[in-house]
Structure formats: structure tokens, C-alpha cells
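Retro notes
What went well: the complex prediction finally ran end to end.
Inputs used:
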Amino acid sequence: MDENSSARLKRRLFGIVYRVGLFLAMLTICLPGLWIVLSSLRPTVEIMAKPPVWIPQDISFDAYVAMFSGIGKGGIPVIEYFRNSLIISVTSTVIAVAIGMAGGYAFARYRFRGKSGVFLGLMLTRTVPGIALSLPLFFLYVRLGIIDTHFGLILAYVALNVPFTIWLIDGFFRQVPKDLAEAAQIDGCTRWQAFWQVEFPLAGPGIASAAIFAFLTCWNEFALASQLTRSVSAKTLPVGLLDYTAEFTIDWRGMCALAVVMIIPALTLTYIVQKHLVGGLTSGAVKG
Amino acid sequence: MATVSLKKLTKRYGNIGIVHGIDLDITDREFIALVGPSGCGKSTTLRMIAGLEEISAGSIEIGGRVVNDLPPRSRNISMVFQSYALYPHMTVRENLGFSLKIAGAAKDDMDRRVAEASAILGLDALLDRRPSQLSGGQRQRVAMGRAIVRDPDVFLFDEPLSNLDAKLRTQMRTEIKKLHAKVQSTVIYVTHDQVEAMTLADRIVIMRDGYIEQVGTPDEVFRRPATRFVAGFIGSPPMNLHEATIDDGKLVFASGEKLPLPAQFKVNVATGNKVVFGLRPDDIYPTGHGISSGGAADVHQIELPITVTEPLGNETLVFVEFNGSDWVSRMLNPRPLKSGERVTMSLDLSQAHLFAVDTGKTLRS
């Protein structure tokens, strides 16, 4: 066998190994999701069976029906939880992205005293586990009277997300050449117009991804929400999952069904926005 | 169309001075090139004129109006950036029309002016493409088109050709010259390439370390360089510059070799003066292979050894050893020469330059 054909064979072999590896990795990532969907459709006996039953014998949508059947019939206030989650996640995402844009732009474009210190400080806040703050926050919120309110949770989530959105958006603004805003100013724009007409559209995909991350963080957050909310008027979906736990029992099927209900909007949103996350939009702006 | 006037224009960053109070008057429709090595303050000067950089002191007038604190959009200028700075999310048409859209121009007026600019620069076939689908030269043309559309008082060019390959650069240089003939507006053109400056400009401003060394026509800065720096910067290959001492009507070089003192300097120097002697490659040539500008009496003959030759086809650059270093000379109508060969060289001293060693200023009266 000559060198060329052996090299070709090697390359093919590597290709196969590579694909199998990728498939296994994807399988590992997707399996829990699949398991949740399956578990929401089958009886508890099958969920708890040992060894696990891979192929469901008895599929039913009872859990979903029960979930929406109202109090007393195994239902929970899904609509209210969903509404709370939506209000809190959307509002805090919008605020965090707005602050992130202002902050990220400032860090990317301006020189000011203590810039690196402030930036480092913002990043350091990310190192504190959110749960460690829940007790102090709880007391503070009780005193302020904002416990168990949308406002309280929005405030906490904005604080949680701002450092991250600033960091992410800063990076995207750095990729937009400074010359473009200057060219726009010479073309008759004010500083403000130059930002909205040129720099914002170019950093758009980055801002969209920052928004997705912020939204998903809020949407899925459990630890803080479980401490800071307690009634139907403020509880979010992840906290709502706890409604399926009783003192001695856990309704796994119901919990999984609610989890599926939670995943769907997040998945839809990500799917919609990811089409706009086209990288390399700035290519062609400067030299070549 | 407008005049531009810089008065004691200064730029400082903290304690570091970048531009030190320069004065410059640019007449209407003039093509001015700011040239100098990197870090000489030429780009900063241009950016101050554009309003992209605040000025620390002095004033800038465009068309007789002081614009010191006006934002770029109120100065009625347009600028072509080194990086082109095309808006990547817009088509060529939108790029060209952007300034008009911002100004709130009517749709048909906008279409007409974009079409005009596009016709001048031959962009018609590219109007619906995006910058990423254009070649370097095409992007450069779009950038110029965007500047033309605004019909500005002053065009500013910031090293517009530096990102192009050599062939395209020559081509675009010609286009810029034609463009200036067509649109007839004041142009301030920053470049580090003296050839660009020489070929394009009506007048050249040579800058160094934040000061203006000389302002003059290409001919003036080439033939009458005011300082040693200008002499060395303008011209390719550069002028041969060597230190010498005046001794009894002769130039004595460090190695002890002598040349007669050129007649035009006799009244300005005295024995004992330290000077820098400068002679362009065009004015040194193997005897019979060059053109002398002065009379026969000004041409000094001397036999020198050849170190290296660089044939360029129509001419050959010949490096000869004199005063312990290589002097470059230009041989017209070349014949083959070998390294080490000794040839009789003609030095046209009527074209020689002398500069003071300490100030670097010319000693020509």
C-alpha cells in the first residue's frame, strides 16, 4: 500500500471516529432532556422501575391534563407561574441588556479612570454564588417590603445578569471598528445617530446572544426565586416545580410535565433568535 | 469649496505634545499633501481638521469660519479613511447615500446624486453589493464615492492607498488626480509615501515630530529642500548625505577625501564650518551616463570603486564607495558594470546641497 492510499484511509478512519465521538457527546447532552419528556408521559411505576424501562409501555398525557385541571384535581396554577416567569424574565432581560449595552459600549470605546478596576470588580461579582446572597437578600427584601414581588426578583436578576451582559457586549463592540462611527459622524450623524445607525446594527448579533443568555438565566433560575417568592402572585415556573413535592412523596411525572412546559418557550426563543446570530457581519468593513 | 487655515494648531495628550502650534494656509481648490514619517502628527492634524480629535490650542478655519468646536457633521467635510470604513451592513448604494439619508434628502435627489458619484467612479455594476463582496480597489472607490456624494467644501484623505497592492496603488493615484480635476475641491491628503505626495499635490507639507519642516510645491521641496530632513525624506532613492568640514574652499570628509566647495555656497560658509553635504543620486553618474544641469565647470570628475549595482532596466542604481560609505548614483542608458570595477564618476556640484550640522537648515541663500 503506498503512502497516499494509507493517508487517505487514515483520514477516512479519523472521519468515522470523529462522527461517532460527536454522536456520543450529543447523545449524552440530549439524553436527560429525552428522559424528562419520556417520564412526563408514563406512569410513576415505570419511571421508578429498576432496571430502567427504556421503551415506554404505556404512554398517556394525564400529567398534562391534570396540570391544567385546577386546584383539587392535581392541578397547579401553571398559567400564573408562566405569567410571572415571563414578566420577570423579559423585564429583567430588557433592563440588563440596556445597561449592558451602555456599559459594554463605554468599556469598549472610552478611556476613563479606574476602568480596569471597575471591570474587574464587575467580573468578581460573578464569583459569588447567588445562593450565598439569598439569606441577606431575604432579610433586606423583607425590610423593604419587596419580598414576594415581581419587582424584587427583577431587581435581583438584573444585578445577576448585568456583569455578564456588559462583558459580552463589550467584546462585540470592540469588534466594530472605531472608524465606522467616525465615518458616520463625518457623514452627518450625531454621536447618538452614529451609534444607532452603524454600531448598534453591527453589534446586534452579540447583543441578541447576550439577551438570550440573560433570559435563560432568569427563566431557569431556582435558588434565589425559591427564597424570594412564596405566593402564586410572584412564584416562577422553576419554583412551581416544588408544588409537586409533598411531605413524603414526589410526583415525578407531574414535575417532568411541568419541566417540559418550561423548556418549550425557552427552546422556541433560542431557535428564533439563533438565526440572527450570524457571525462575521462586520467583515468587509475595513481593509481587505 | 473653501480655504482652510490652521493657526498655531496644537495637540497635546496630557504633557505629551503631538502637534506643536503649526500654521498653514490652504487656498481654495488646492491639493495639499501632508507627508512625514509615522508619528509626525500628520494624521492627528487631519483628524483635528475633521473634528474627530479635539484641539488643545490654536484655531482651524474652513472657508473663513472658525470650526474649532464644531462637530464633524457641521464642518461640511468628507473623509476617506485608510481602512475605507464602509458600513458593512449596507449595500454600496446605501453606503453612498447614507449621508444624504441622514440629511433628510428627498428620494429622487438622493438617487440622482448617488448615480452621479457612481458614474464618476464606475461603480454602477456594484451598487447592490455589500462591502464584503468587493475587492480592495473597489472598496477604495466606494469610499471615495461616499465622500463625493456629500459635495463637501474640503476632502480629507487619510492614507487612502496604503492598503492596496503596488499596482493598484499607482492606478488609484491616477484616479484620485483625475477626480480632483473633475470635482475641483480643496483636498488635504495625508500620506507617508513621498511618491504619492509628489505626484498628487499642488503643495507638499513635510512634517516631523509635530512641526512643519517645509511647505512648497513638489519641485521646490525636491530642488530646494529647506532642511536636511526634507532632503533625506523626499526623493527615491534618497539623497546622499554626509558630514564634512569646510577647509579653504574645499569640503573635507571624515575619511580625509575632498571635494571642491560648490560655487553657490561660497559666500555662506567659512573655513572650519561643519556642514552636511547632500547630492541626489541623479547628480552622480558614471561619466557619459547622466545629464548635468549646470555648466561643465560644476561637474567634478572622480574615480571610484563600485560596490553593488541594481539594474532597473531603463537605468541602473550604482553604489560607489566614497568617504568610507556607499553613495548611490543613477546611471542612465546603462551598460554592464562589475563590482569592484573602478569607474570615473561625474558629480554635478551645481545641484549639491549644504546644511548646517547643528540646526539642519539649508545654507543656501
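What we learned: Chain A touches chain B through 26 residues (CB under 8 Å).
What to try next: split runs per interface for comparison.
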